[in-house]
Design brief:
The complex is a heterodimer of chains A (about 230) and B (about 300).
Chain A (H helix, E strand, L loop, with lengths): L24 E4 L5 E4 L1 H4 L15 H12 L2 E4 L7 H8 L10 E4 L7 E5 L4 H13 L5 E5 L2 H4 L21 E3 L6 H16 L5 H7 L1 H11 L11
Helix pairs in contact in A: 2-6
Chain B lengths: L6 H30 L9 H11 L8 H19 L18 H22 L3 H32 L4 H7 L8 H4 L1 H14 L24 H26 L6 H21 L5 H22 L1
Helix pairs in contact in B: 1-9, 1-10, 2-9, 3-4, 3-9, 4-5, 5-8, 5-11, 6-9, 8-9, 8-11, 9-10
Classes of the chains: A alpha/beta (about 230), B mainly alpha (about 300).
Chain lengths: ~230, ~300
């Protein structure tokens, strides 16, 4: 099950040069001042994620969880073929807005990330960056069997098999492809989880940060970003 | 201006009523938009939950002091607008603060939030925010021109810069409204109205479907909640100004709710019918059609 068989193994022999724009360079300001810039150090926050405690008062946390459950903002980020199943949810046929589910264009304003289908290693890198930029508490839903065990891509050289190794998944919606009704049912289940206070994926990610990073770095060949992408 | 301390709790009470009403009316307008698109739309209480949810988020990151102050300035623009405009004319509780030059202050407050937002979003360092700010400022500036001319026109007409006196002059009959006594100024001001309501067709700079959400790209959790509050309060505040200046003001909450809804609905109606304009198209629209009407309004007084 691990994505560490021979065909998938990270190529450690070949050097992957850092992209041009990420190398340290000098910038000349309009007033003639020369500034040294190291993008990997200067453009990102280096601080690892921390575990956010719950509210001290039980009833407050329950109230917050109720609000979180009824206001799920999904990051508009489609990874595989499952993205096509999310479109009918925004449009008149299924209209998920009725249930407080809305789509946002930027990770900063989203709480829910739907990994819709297979995730190639190249997209995994983007998914990780987007996930880490979302404010906590945040939830991940794996859509389709590709996110559970690789599905029909289980022996592919370039897609990951178990999403749970790389991002903390709260809920899987099985199927290939699951229909929009299944998605809606899945979102309702996610709401129940959140209301029970079990949607703590962000804290799980922070607690097991090293393990997740190890897994991510094992498959991503050109790791040209800091460990944490705030 | 005669000030008494009791006015402060009264003004806060007015603000609370308007905020609750604004969140509700915003949801209604979103529902109308959804119905036009054939959808059922969000529940009417959805905006309240979204607000609580955003305050309940646990991580807050900042990009600097101005990033903090941006949403605060934005909200100040909306709340300040309400505080210096009589919400209910003739009411002791909801008259708010007023003095002889408050029309100028109101004009300033309409623009104040936008400027604060520009500084805050600029500090976030996100290119989408910077692009959204420059596009938004350009468009809002063009849309404010007809409004400013209309305001000059009616201040000439009524020979005052005091909003309360302007409302007082319109009482008695529906034909005393500026709408009937100075229709050109009202027309010019309506250009500015639809242009600054942050709704289609003039919302290309912050629409999520265009350059992702524009200025608020980096804003999240409590910052976003403040901006959401302003997003609902500010259009209502502006509608109150229009109601006072052009449509006879309101003497009770019933008339207030009705007039604000009807005025708000004008921009929603235009929004659901029209596709979005690009920024240069809308600027050209305001300069070509709004500005001449505004100049005519001044000449005709």
């Amino acid at each position: 099950m691990k994505d560490m068989d021979k065909s998938f193994k990270k190529d450690t022999e070949t050097e992957f040069p850092l992209r041009e724009e990420l190398r340290p360079h000098q910038v000349t300001a309009p007033d003639g001042q020369v500034i040294e810039v190291d993008p990997l150090q200067d453009y990102f926050c280096q601080e690892p994620p921390k575990v956010h405690r719950k509210s001290y008062v039980r009833i407050v946390e329950d109230f917050y969880n109720w609000a979180r459950a009824h206001s799920l903002w999904i990051l508009g980020f489609g990874t595989g073929c499952g993205a096509i199943e999310m479109r009918p949810l925004m449009t008149p046929r299924f209209d998920a807005y009725r249930y407080g589910i809305q789509w946002r264009a930027t990770p900063r304003q989203a709480n829910l990330m739907v990994i819709s289908g297979y995730l190639s290693v190249k997209t995994l890198k983007r998914a990780i960056r987007a996930y880490e930029q979302m404010p906590s508490p945040k939830y991940v839903v794996g859509l389709g069997s590709c996110t559970i065990n690789g599905g029909m891509y289980w022996d592919s050289y370039n897609t990951i098999k178990r999403l749970d190794d790389y991002l903390p998944v709260d809920l899987y919606i099985a199927g290939c492809m699951p229909r929009p009704e299944a998605l809606l049912a899945g979102f309702m289940d996610l709401k129940k989880l959140i209301r029970k206070g079990q949607g703590e994926g962000a804290n799980k990610y922070a607690e097991n940060f090293d393990w997740y990073k190890e897994n991510q770095k094992a498959v991503i060949k050109d790791w040209d970003m800091p460990d944490y992408n705030w | 201006m005669n000030f008494e301390w009791i006015q402060i709790p009264y003004a806060l009470w007015t603000l609370l009523i308007i905020t609750v009403y604004a969140l509700f009316i915003m949801a209604i307008m979103q529902k109308i938009g959804a119905r036009v698109g054939g959808r059922y739309g969000i529940p009417v209480y959805q905006n309240y939950i979204d607000l609580v949810k955003n305050f309940a988020l646990r991580s807050h990151i900042t990009h600097g002091i101005m990033f903090y102050l941006g949403p605060v300035f934005r909200l100040t623009g909306g709340l300040g607008l309400i505080l210096f405009v009589p919400t209910i004319y003739g009411s002791v509780m909801h008259q708010n603060f007023h003095y002889s030059g408050d029309l100028i202050l109101a004009l300033y407050f309409i623009f104040f939030g936008t400027l604060g937002m520009a500084l805050g979003a600029g500090e976030s360092g996100h290119p989408h925010a910077a692009i959204g700010v420059s596009r938004g400022l350009a468009q809002v500036t063009a849309a404010e021109l007809p409004l400013a001319l209309a305001v000059f026109s009616i201040s000439l007409q009524y020979q005052t810069l005091n909003i309360t006196e302007i409302v007082a002059a319109q009482q008695g009959s529906i034909f005393n409204w500026t709408l009937f006594t100075n229709p050109l100024a009202v027309l010019a001001a309506m250009f500015g109205f639809v242009g600054t309501m942050m709704r289609a067709p003039f919302d290309v700079f912050l629409a999520p479907q265009e350059i992702p959400t524009g200025p608020p790209t980096e804003y999240h959790s409590a910052y976003l909640a403040l901006m959401q509050t302003n997003r609902v309060v500010f259009p209502v505040a502006k509608t109150i100004i229009y109601m006072n200046l052009f449509f006879g003001g309101a003497t009770n909450w019933g008339a207030f709710a009705l007039k604000v809804f009807a005025l708000y609905f004008v921009s929603v109606l235009i929004g659901v019918v029209m596709p979005r304009f690009r920024v240069e198209q809308s600027i050209r629209f305001f300069l070509k059609w709004g500005l001449p009407v505004g100049i005519l309004a001044i000449l005709a007084v």
